[in-house]
Amino acid sequence: MQDDVILRISNLSKSFGPVKALRGIDFELRKGEIHAIAGENGAGKSTLMNVIDGILQPESGQIVLDGKPVKISSPTMAQQLGIGFVHQEIALCPDVSVAENIFMAKTNTSRSWLMDYNKLERDAVDVFRQLSDIDPSILVKNLSISNQQLVEIAKALTLDCRILILDEPTAALTETEAQTLFGIMRKLADQGISIIYISHRMVEIFDNCDRVSVFRDGQHIVTQNVAEIQPSDVVNAMVGRVIDNLYPEKQVASSDGVILKVSNLTEATRFRDVSFNLKKGEILGIAGLIGAGRSEIVKGICQLEGDVTGDVWLNGEKLNLRNYRDSIAKGMVYLSEDRKGDGVFLDLPIAANVSALKLEQVANGVGLIQSAMEDTQAATLGRKLNLKCGSLSDPVSSLSGGNQQKVALAKMLSVNPRLIFLDEPTRGVDVGAKSEIHRILRDQANEGVGIVVISSELPELIGVCDRVLVVREGRISGQVTGDEMTEENIMHLASVMDAQASVA
Fold first, then answer.
1. Same fold yes or no, 2-239 and 245-331+417-504
2. pLDDT score at 175
3. CA separation (Å) from 424 to 343, 345, 369, 380, 483?
4. What's the CA angle centered on 283, arms 298 and 305, to 5 degrees?
5. What share of the chain is helix, strand, coil (3-state, %, to 5)?
6. CA neighbours closer than 13 Å in the CB half-sphere of residue 312
7. Which region, left, alpha or beta, applies to residue 66 given φ > 0 means left and ψ of -120 to 50 means alpha?
8. What is the H or E stretch that residue 150 is in?
9. Residues 6 or more apart in contact with residue 304 via CB below 8 angstroms
10. Distance from C-alpha of 189 to C-alpha of 183, rounded to nearest angstrom
């Protein structure tokens, strides 16, 4: 099998100040295999990929490509060596077209003074033929997050790469788009292209990959054929302990108390006649295919966007909201699915992020922010959420994905909310942090805070929620609870309109 190895990493180390991100890593990638890398946020996965891509330089160790030692000094050199990298964080130019983004590297090396836009768009159509029907002339900023992710993947496919690195590529994709990607991955592997696949989703790893390597605390823990290891073994190797329950025990919701009542909520183009209740003590899930209107309904309730009609009651009080500021004042907050874009301020300190939703809570009588009050608030909520950080003055960008999400949650909790809408609350978060976030949500529900979770991960909805509403084409097509809460039933309601427009 040694002849099949295209990439070999030996005794690789990398530090950031006192933090040892990689500790003598050994790793091998075979020709034509799909090799999964699993590990908690901060385990060293992305650091190793950045070394392979030439973004970071190791302090020690060796990289051998096709049997020859190489020094990958930059991403450009990595591309020249046949290495393509699709990053988890979208890095497109929003104000130019899809076609221009896809072929930007090729355009930069062109000696032509003129851009042939028609040819770019024709070539882009050819690339997307195997991915999606995205219009190559549209500006990237006008695309959904899922379609922007597909553009990133299309960019990588245009490179003549022998090694393709995919970092959480399905985090923003629909199930259909994800299955299309998996088919493309297998075709590429059959053509001899080697794929490194980073994911927190065990189902994806075990359905689509040949081998899996687990990292923990900057060290390589184990590599095994997927057919010879169990998902629970991978999870336990990732966290260094046995996780018996990913989801906390469910509770019986109060039958005589309603936190939220929505009646005939309508927005002209995106959803209509939406009615439902949220009972005290329950966690309510909202499912549906991307584009069905899940997020739009919740944003409409909070007056974040759209011209919405209908009635909303919170703890028996009929609300008359003009904007999101009014929603916050009433204790109803929304945690965006786009953590990096809307959930946190990456370059600001942790403490400043926590207080950002309601600055008057940490200001003196003349409106000046009091650092001591801000730090106290952040420290209190940080302890409650088991936030792991060096200092509250550190930027949020210095934290792992799971801890960034905890900062976003702390920001919601800082206003003592009565109801929290959480949109994809564990996207891009490792299994250990997911378990903690699920516990936090259950604790909040038990304390009387209304919790509504939107998620594309059906196992998460089934595991953490007491009841799930399913949205299809802007209407509630039904609900599932108890033993009826299965992936099959949810997908049936999401794709076949059985529905009633109103559920209790």
1. yes
2. 72
3. 11, 18, 31, 25, 23
4. 5
5. 35, 25, 35
6. 21
7. left
8. helix 145-158
9. 324, 327, 334
10. 10
Angle at which helix 431-446 crosses helix 401-413, to 10 degrees, equals 10
pTM (predicted TM-score) = 0.66
CATH number for the 245-331+417-504 domain, one of 3.40.50.1360, 3.90.1150.10, 3.40.50.300, 3.40.50.150? 3.40.50.300
Q: What is the pLDDT of residues 165-185, one digit of tens each?
A: 998 888 767 677 788 889 888
- Please write down the HEC assignment for all residues of 62-82: EEEECCEEECCCCHHHHHHCC
pLDDT of residue 291: 77
Q: How far apart are CA 308 and CA 271, in angstroms?
A: 9
On whether the CB atoms of residues 479 and 469 are closer than 8 A, the answer is yes
> For the segment 341-396, what is each residue's pLDDT rounded down to a tens digit?
778 898 999 999 999 988 888 888 788 888 999 999 999 999 988 888 889 999 99
Domain residues of the chain, as ranges? 2-239, 245-331+417-504, 346-415
Fold of the 2-239 domain: Rossmann fold (3.40.50)
